[in-house]
Amino acid sequence: MQLLLALLHELVKFAGLLLIGRGLTFVASLGRHETNPVYRFFRFLTSPLTRAARLVSPAKLADRHLPLVAFLLLFWLWLALIFVRRSLILQAGS
Q1: Mean pLDDT of 71-79
Q2: pTM as predicted
Q3: Are 51 and 30 in contact (CB under 8 A)?
Q4: Can you give the pLDDT at residue 31?
Q5: CA distance 52 to 62
Q6: Sign of the dihedral through C-alpha 46, 51, 56, 61
Q7: In the chain, domain spans
């Protein structure tokens, strides 16, 4: 169980870092992000995350905000996994 949670925790962390990379590339592209191949690669890698964010977000939310929603969801999942793993470790120690 610990191994599975550790693997999930690292995958969530990696996905969050991909979204951070996408955001930093967006800012560094100075408005020409659609022609930047690095940005398009990040967009390709994070597209499942933004689609999942679209499923749980309100329909009125603009598409340009979906990467931020996806990042915030991953952040809360990352924190929840920290607490779950910590509680399991403390239970095993008792």
Answers
A1: 96
A2: 0.87
A3: no
A4: 83
A5: 14
A6: positive
A7: 2-93
